[in-house]
Specification:
The complex is a heterodimer of chains A (about 120) and B (about 110). Helices cover about 0% and strands about 55% of the residues of chain A. Chain A has no helices and 14 strands. With about 110 residues, chain B is mainly β. Classes of the chains: A mainly beta (about 120), B mainly beta (about 110).
Chain lengths: ~120, ~110
Protein backbone atom coordinates (compact mmCIF):
# COMPACT_ATOMS: atom_id res chain seq x y z
CA UNK A 1 0.00 0.00 0.00
CA UNK A 2 1.11 3.52 -0.67
CA UNK A 3 1.97 5.47 2.44
CA UNK A 4 4.11 8.19 3.92
CA UNK A 5 5.55 8.05 7.41
CA UNK A 6 6.84 11.00 9.36
CA UNK A 7 8.20 9.41 12.53
CA UNK A 8 8.48 12.61 14.54
CA UNK A 9 5.23 14.21 15.63
CA UNK A 10 6.88 17.19 17.31
CA UNK A 11 10.43 18.52 17.22
CA UNK A 12 11.90 21.46 19.12
CA UNK A 13 15.15 23.08 18.02
CA UNK A 14 17.01 26.17 19.09
CA UNK A 15 17.15 29.12 16.75
CA UNK A 16 20.29 28.87 14.66
CA UNK A 17 20.58 25.11 15.07
CA UNK A 18 20.38 22.70 12.18
CA UNK A 19 17.20 20.79 11.37
CA UNK A 20 16.36 17.46 9.82
CA UNK A 21 12.79 16.21 9.43
CA UNK A 22 12.39 12.60 8.48
CA UNK A 23 10.12 11.16 5.83
CA UNK A 24 9.81 7.57 4.61
CA UNK A 25 7.52 6.46 1.85
CA UNK A 26 6.09 3.33 0.36
CA UNK A 27 5.14 3.63 -3.28
CA UNK A 28 4.80 1.12 -6.08
CA UNK A 29 6.09 3.24 -8.92
CA UNK A 30 8.63 6.01 -9.40
CA UNK A 31 7.64 8.50 -6.74
CA UNK A 32 7.27 12.21 -7.03
CA UNK A 33 8.05 13.65 -3.60
CA UNK A 34 7.09 16.90 -2.00
CA UNK A 35 7.51 18.85 1.22
CA UNK A 36 4.86 21.35 2.24
CA UNK A 37 4.76 23.76 5.17
CA UNK A 38 1.63 24.91 6.97
CA UNK A 39 1.58 27.86 9.33
CA UNK A 40 -1.30 28.10 11.83
CA UNK A 41 -4.59 28.90 10.10
CA UNK A 42 -3.00 28.79 6.66
CA UNK A 43 -3.07 26.47 3.69
CA UNK A 44 -0.10 24.44 2.56
CA UNK A 45 2.85 26.05 0.83
CA UNK A 46 5.14 23.99 -1.35
CA UNK A 47 8.73 24.04 -0.08
CA UNK A 48 10.35 21.76 -2.63
CA UNK A 49 9.78 18.82 -4.93
CA UNK A 50 11.62 15.88 -6.41
CA UNK A 51 10.71 14.33 -9.74
CA UNK A 52 13.94 12.91 -11.11
CA UNK A 53 17.60 13.67 -11.61
CA UNK A 54 19.76 15.15 -8.88
CA UNK A 55 18.78 13.56 -5.59
CA UNK A 56 19.53 16.71 -3.58
CA UNK A 57 16.90 19.33 -4.24
CA UNK A 58 16.82 22.92 -3.12
CA UNK A 59 13.68 24.70 -2.10
CA UNK A 60 12.46 27.99 -0.80
CA UNK A 61 13.38 29.53 2.56
CA UNK A 62 16.77 27.80 2.61
CA UNK A 63 15.38 24.26 2.80
CA UNK A 64 16.78 21.25 0.99
CA UNK A 65 15.88 17.58 0.81
CA UNK A 66 17.68 14.46 -0.27
CA UNK A 67 16.03 11.53 -2.03
CA UNK A 68 17.49 8.18 -1.08
CA UNK A 69 15.86 5.41 -3.07
CA UNK A 70 17.63 2.63 -1.16
CA UNK A 71 16.17 3.91 2.11
CA UNK A 72 12.82 5.07 0.69
CA UNK A 73 13.47 8.37 2.37
CA UNK A 74 13.15 12.04 1.53
CA UNK A 75 14.40 13.96 4.55
CA UNK A 76 14.10 17.71 4.81
CA UNK A 77 17.02 19.75 6.10
CA UNK A 78 17.94 23.30 6.94
CA UNK A 79 21.39 24.36 8.18
CA UNK A 80 20.19 27.16 10.47
CA UNK A 81 16.64 27.45 11.72
CA UNK A 82 14.92 30.80 12.12
CA UNK A 83 12.07 31.51 14.56
CA UNK A 84 9.77 32.05 11.58
CA UNK A 85 10.26 28.41 10.55
CA UNK A 86 8.00 27.29 13.40
CA UNK A 87 5.14 25.54 11.61
CA UNK A 88 3.91 22.10 10.63
CA UNK A 89 5.68 20.25 7.85
CA UNK A 90 4.13 17.64 5.63
CA UNK A 91 5.84 15.15 3.36
CA UNK A 92 3.82 13.84 0.41
CA UNK A 93 4.22 11.35 -2.40
CA UNK A 94 2.46 11.18 -5.73
CA UNK A 95 2.95 9.94 -9.22
CA UNK A 96 1.93 10.15 -12.82
CA UNK A 97 -0.72 7.58 -13.58
CA UNK A 98 -0.27 7.08 -17.30
CA UNK A 99 -0.40 10.80 -17.89
CA UNK A 100 -3.22 11.52 -15.46
CA UNK A 101 -2.40 13.16 -12.19
CA UNK A 102 -3.75 11.62 -9.06
CA UNK A 103 -3.97 12.69 -5.49
CA UNK A 104 -1.02 13.14 -3.18
CA UNK A 105 -0.57 10.90 -0.16
CA UNK A 106 0.47 12.86 2.88
CA UNK A 107 2.23 11.99 6.08
CA UNK A 108 0.65 13.07 9.35
CA UNK A 109 3.04 15.98 9.69
CA UNK A 110 5.82 17.10 12.01
CA UNK A 111 5.25 20.15 14.14
CA UNK A 112 8.38 22.25 14.51
CA UNK A 113 8.86 24.53 17.49
CA UNK A 114 11.80 26.95 17.64
CA UNK A 115 13.14 28.17 20.95
CA UNK A 116 15.11 31.38 21.25
CA UNK B 1 -1.27 35.83 -10.23
CA UNK B 2 -4.10 34.86 -7.94
CA UNK B 3 -3.80 31.66 -6.00
CA UNK B 4 -6.45 29.12 -5.06
CA UNK B 5 -9.28 30.73 -3.15
CA UNK B 6 -11.87 29.10 -0.93
CA UNK B 7 -15.05 30.34 0.64
CA UNK B 8 -16.22 30.68 3.26
CA UNK B 9 -13.10 30.74 5.38
CA UNK B 10 -15.10 29.62 8.39
CA UNK B 11 -18.47 27.90 8.61
CA UNK B 12 -20.38 27.01 11.74
CA UNK B 13 -23.47 24.91 11.28
CA UNK B 14 -25.84 22.79 13.26
CA UNK B 15 -25.92 19.03 13.07
CA UNK B 16 -28.24 17.89 10.32
CA UNK B 17 -27.89 20.98 8.13
CA UNK B 18 -26.42 20.95 4.63
CA UNK B 19 -23.32 22.99 3.78
CA UNK B 20 -21.62 24.03 0.55
CA UNK B 21 -17.93 24.82 0.32
CA UNK B 22 -16.52 26.59 -2.69
CA UNK B 23 -13.14 26.43 -4.39
CA UNK B 24 -11.78 28.70 -7.13
CA UNK B 25 -8.64 27.13 -8.60
CA UNK B 26 -5.77 28.93 -10.25
CA UNK B 27 -6.79 30.02 -13.73
CA UNK B 28 -5.81 27.43 -16.33
CA UNK B 29 -5.34 24.60 -13.86
CA UNK B 30 -7.16 21.54 -15.12
CA UNK B 31 -6.87 19.30 -12.07
CA UNK B 32 -8.63 20.09 -8.82
CA UNK B 33 -8.51 18.20 -5.51
CA UNK B 34 -10.39 18.25 -2.23
CA UNK B 35 -8.78 17.12 1.01
CA UNK B 36 -9.92 17.05 4.61
CA UNK B 37 -7.66 17.84 7.55
CA UNK B 38 -8.91 16.84 10.97
CA UNK B 39 -7.29 17.89 14.24
CA UNK B 40 -4.04 16.04 14.71
CA UNK B 41 -4.40 14.18 11.43
CA UNK B 42 -2.72 14.50 8.11
CA UNK B 43 -4.53 15.31 4.93
CA UNK B 44 -7.22 12.89 3.84
CA UNK B 45 -7.95 12.80 0.12
CA UNK B 46 -11.62 13.20 -0.82
CA UNK B 47 -12.03 13.66 -4.57
CA UNK B 48 -10.11 14.61 -7.70
CA UNK B 49 -11.38 16.38 -10.83
CA UNK B 50 -9.79 16.47 -14.25
CA UNK B 51 -11.75 19.12 -16.06
CA UNK B 52 -15.37 18.65 -15.04
CA UNK B 53 -15.18 14.90 -14.52
CA UNK B 54 -14.14 13.11 -11.36
CA UNK B 55 -11.99 10.08 -12.19
CA UNK B 56 -11.34 9.43 -8.52
CA UNK B 57 -13.90 9.99 -5.82
CA UNK B 58 -12.71 7.12 -3.70
CA UNK B 59 -12.00 9.29 -0.68
CA UNK B 60 -15.52 10.57 -0.13
CA UNK B 61 -16.37 9.17 3.32
CA UNK B 62 -20.09 8.64 2.76
CA UNK B 63 -22.93 9.36 0.38
CA UNK B 64 -23.61 12.53 2.34
CA UNK B 65 -20.58 14.00 0.57
CA UNK B 66 -20.70 15.09 -3.05
CA UNK B 67 -18.79 17.48 -5.27
CA UNK B 68 -19.12 19.00 -8.67
CA UNK B 69 -17.06 21.18 -10.93
CA UNK B 70 -18.43 23.39 -13.64
CA UNK B 71 -16.77 25.10 -16.60
CA UNK B 72 -13.52 23.41 -15.73
CA UNK B 73 -13.11 25.96 -12.98
CA UNK B 74 -15.11 26.44 -9.78
CA UNK B 75 -15.85 23.43 -7.60
CA UNK B 76 -18.38 22.97 -4.84
CA UNK B 77 -18.16 20.37 -2.11
CA UNK B 78 -21.55 19.64 -0.52
CA UNK B 79 -22.06 17.87 2.77
CA UNK B 80 -25.63 16.87 3.51
CA UNK B 81 -27.05 16.25 6.96
CA UNK B 82 -23.81 17.28 8.63
CA UNK B 83 -22.51 15.32 11.61
CA UNK B 84 -20.11 16.42 14.32
CA UNK B 85 -17.41 14.16 12.91
CA UNK B 86 -17.51 16.26 9.72
CA UNK B 87 -15.85 19.10 11.63
CA UNK B 88 -12.50 19.69 9.98
CA UNK B 89 -10.60 21.99 7.66
CA UNK B 90 -11.46 21.32 4.04
CA UNK B 91 -8.61 22.13 1.68
CA UNK B 92 -8.76 22.55 -2.05
CA UNK B 93 -5.78 22.31 -4.39
CA UNK B 94 -5.22 22.63 -8.12
CA UNK B 95 -2.58 21.51 -10.59
CA UNK B 96 -1.60 22.79 -14.02
CA UNK B 97 -1.99 20.71 -17.18
CA UNK B 98 0.99 18.53 -18.07
CA UNK B 99 2.23 18.97 -14.54
CA UNK B 100 3.95 16.32 -12.47
CA UNK B 101 1.58 16.20 -9.55
CA UNK B 102 2.60 19.48 -7.96
CA UNK B 103 -0.44 20.89 -6.18
CA UNK B 104 -1.18 24.43 -5.07
CA UNK B 105 -3.39 24.76 -2.02
CA UNK B 106 -6.00 27.24 -0.95
CA UNK B 107 -6.29 28.55 2.63
CA UNK B 108 -9.06 26.09 3.50
CA UNK B 109 -12.53 26.28 4.99
CA UNK B 110 -12.83 25.49 8.68
CA UNK B 111 -16.12 23.69 9.23
CA UNK B 112 -17.54 23.36 12.73
CA UNK B 113 -20.64 21.25 13.27
CA UNK B 114 -22.36 21.90 16.58
Amino acid sequence: AQSVTQPDIHITVSEGASLELRCNYSYGATPYLFWYVQSPGQGLQLLLKYFSGDTLVQGIKGFEAEFKRSQSSFNLRKPSVHWSDAAEYFCAVGGNYGGSQGNLIFGKGTKLSVKP
Amino acid sequence: GAGVSQSPSNKVTEKGKDVELRCDPISGHTALYWYRQSLGQGLEFLIYFQGNSAPDKSGLPSDRFSAERTGGSVSTLTIQRTQQEDSAVYLCASSPPRGLGEQFFGPGTRLTVL
